[in-house]
Amino acid sequence: xxxxxxxxxxxxxxxFPNGTQALRGVSLAVRPxxxxxxxxxxxxxxxxLVKIISGAHQPTGGVLRWTGQDRRWRDPGAAxxxxxxxxxxxxxxxxTLTVIENVFLDRRGAWxxxxxxxxxxxxxxxxxxxxxxxxxxxADLPIGSRxxxxxLQALAAGAQLVIMDEPTASLSEQERRVVFDAVxxxxxxxxxxxxxxxxxxxxxxxxxxxxxxxDGTTVLDEATETVTEGMLVRAVTGRExxxxxxxDTAGPDPGAPxxxxxxxxxxxxxxxxxxxxxxxxxxxxxxxxxGSGRSEILRAVFGDxxxxxxxxxxxxxxVGRSARAAVAAGVAYVPEDRAGQGLHGGLPIWQNVSLPDLxxxxxGRLVPRTADERALAGRAVADLGIVTPGVEAVPGELxxxxxxxxxxAKWMYADTHVWLLDEPTAGVDVGAKADLLRLIRQFAAQGxxxxxxxxxxxxxxSAATRVLVVRGGRIxxxxxxxxxxxxxxxxxAHGLWTEPSGPEQAPEPSDPNEEEMSHER
Amino acid sequence: xxxEATPGRWRLPAALRLGNAGVVYAFALxxxxxxxxxxxxxxxxxxxxxxxxxxxxxxxxxGILAITTTIVLISGNFDLSVGAVAALGxxxxxxxxxxxxxxxxxxxxxxxxxxxxxxxxxxxxxVGINAFIVTLGTxxxxxxxxxxxxxxxxxxxxxxxxxxxxxAIDGGAWVTPNLYLLAGLVLLAAGIWRAxxxxxxxxxxxxxxxxxxxxxxxxxxxxxxxxxITQRTLYLLVLAAVAAWVLRYTTxxxxxxxxxxxxxxxxxxxxxxxxxxxxxxxxxxxxxxFIGVLYAARLGSINPTGLSGFELxxxxxxxxxxxxxxxxxxxVAKSLVGALILVTLKNGFNILxxxxxxxxxxxxxxxxxxAGVYTxxxxxxQTRRIREVETPPTGSGPPGxxxxxxxxxxxxxPAKVPAAQKGD
Lengths: 521, 424
Description:
The structure holds two protein chains of two kinds.
Chain A: E1 7-15, E2 21-30, E3 35-39, H1 46-53, E4 61-66, E5 69-70, H2 76-82, E6 84-87, H3 99-103, H4 115-128, H5 143-156, E7 161-165, H6 173-188, E8 192-196, H7 200-206, E9 209-214, E10 217-223, H8 229-237, E11 258-266, E12 274-279, E13 283-287, H9 294-301, E14 309-314, E15 317-318, H10 323-328, E16 331-334, H11 338-342, H12 349-354, E17 362-363, E18 367-368, H13 370-384, H14 400-412, E19 418-422, H15 430-445, E20 449-453, H16 457-463, E21 466-471, E22 474-480, H17 486-494, H18 511-520
Parallel strand pairs in A: 3-8, 3-9, 6-7, 7-8, 13-20, 13-21, 16-19, 19-20
Antiparallel strand pairs in A: 1-2, 1-4, 4-5, 9-10, 11-12, 11-14, 14-15, 17-18, 21-22
Chain B: H1 2-5, H2 18-40, H3 49-74, H4 82-100, H5 102-127, H6 131-150, E1 155-156, H7 161-170, E2 173-175, H8 179-198, H9 204-219, E3 228-230, H10 231-249, H11 251-261, H12 263-268, H13 273-299, E4 301-302, H14 310-320, H15 332-351, H16 359-390, H17 407-410
Antiparallel strand pairs in B: 1-4, 2-3
Domain ABC transporter (chain A): 7-240, 244-497
GO molecular function, one term (chain A): ATP hydrolysis activity
Protein name (chain A): Sugar ABC transporter ATP-binding protein
């Protein structure tokens, strides 16, 4: 590795027009031919940083030096021209064109295909060491191959630095190997990589140097070999992980009846033998990384995954495999995508709130009593402190936290026994977050069974009484919330706790849970 | 438009704004222009009882289809097959009524229409092929079946039972009581109902219809306006009333709007979205077969290429009425007005003796202008919403800010407009 950095950032800051300070001073140096890891929690400023490097945003302050010269990109095209290629998580290829046409998409020239282009493609494929049919249509390729097409595209553009944003998030283990091999091979030839990943094991395996950003500043920047897992976790979370305020985690009465009983849930999307029970008054947390199957479990329990097999019982009665049956059985589902799945943006709040329970609010189950519906919505607005001009407002006009409260209100006044919450506090401001967490505890106090999925483990621990860790579509560990830490959950979710045995079985340190499980039965 | 421009205190109620009631204004404008023009040319009075009855009669077939097409569009789908299904229904009814009798043949025709609708719905919802493609296919295929059934020849209703049956479903006509009196009584009833419900007799929402009702009833001995309602027009009115009631007031309607507006959220709220959408197709197919028979009843025969392009006219009427092609938005009443506009245009061209050649051009322009008005008003509403969201959420907004949206002053707006229409 040469000593002159290819890309140097020094004290880069970014303040958005609305006053949000996304970056407060990030410094990093990428050397030619190196693989540089970039790690940070959601909202730490990673994506803003990538956008500045790739020219989508202008930095507010600081230095961006590319091959020894101070540069400011006018637009992403300028950065690309200079040799910086960005491969996003959702690869923006044209699905209806062939591989070779995608690779040379930005070439000018009258002909769609020439012999020269084919020769160039062959040369690129040789460099990459990955065989791919140039005439295959991209839509027919698996995601892993599409990543490779994007890499080829970057090479064809003459990239000296390739930024990869979570390239393996939706790849199988085998496809991951292919991407890793390509990265290693190309970096040996002198192409530099900026590799962004949530998976710490990948960072350790692949990168030469790792930079951690938190709250818009660089908090760690060292050669990977000198970094330990603990350092990484601490740098990402910024704490020794003590100060988590826990709820009065007395937990539920161990003799409380089992409300939700899930047995042997498997599905085409990759769930395997998921079984768990939730007692009345219990808040069960599901911890896992993006793509671990955490959301899929909730969907399958709710009956919204037609490929799912297994049984779901609510209060002992088996629930049919449809969302309709689940709703009828008293299961409430707060989906991850609020606007797309949780709410009707065009219907006023009062119609949104009454929708799951409309029949009960209607004369003869046919003619809705609109006055009652409005009164119910008004009660929800008061109970939950929803900031809205009135119940006639449409949810599209509300802020994230208030819209989420409307989703909660849809199920609060119905005969709900089980709450399935998928990222209930995502994109919600601090005040509303506290409100929602209090609400969730209140549900448990009323004797409901609550299952909550949350990518922020600190928050998960502050809400849940018991936590299941999910990786690769199966439950790999179980912990009592008071007796675990965010760090431990992170390790388990990353698959780092049991490196030799892999995520095959529940790891040894979960012995206390085995007891837990056995005495539950 | 003017309502958007006046910032301060008074704003036009949501139901009367251009984006919501544009089609009604357009219809009123069109009728006024035609009435003045025909007056100036010294032709028959355009708004006379004969012509009004004529327009209603001519609107029947397209009106019925516009209603059921609107239902399909609200549910989030699209149906191009109804013109062909109508021809098939007529062909089935006429060619079978000789052998099995008229009423069984009619039932069979309706069942055929329902079956095609069921096929459309099942393929679209459960196989998952785009509705446009599926119904384009059934449109072509069903027209082919009509040719097979009729062997390419016009089918004429045989004399006797068939003719009598056709007369039974389409021959009748009634003269209405004085419409001024009727309208007055309806207004009175509405005013009394509203007042009784809110217990506020002086509120304009109750007072206006009460006063107008009293005035109309009082004037009714002097003002007399009666028209001759044909039997088919009665079908239209009944269907429109039932459909409007179901969509506006029942859980079925609410769930239909919800299914079309956001299918995913509706399903996750426990609504059987697929079932609602299939039923909409079945309804559309059945109605199509029925209007096919009505069409044949007047002619006494059905041509295998008859009723071609009817599906597009029905769609045009629905679009004129502000129905969204993306689902979740639309109103039976307004689609009906849309159908009336199309029929009035045609009728006006005839009455004023303008060249029929110009008709298509004018209809097309009207359609695009209408869609443009809806799109612009919807976009304006959305940009306003974004501006509202960007202002910092400092608890309850200061009074008079626009973020009360359409709801603030209207209080209880739905009487005129299905509330589901107010968003996007």
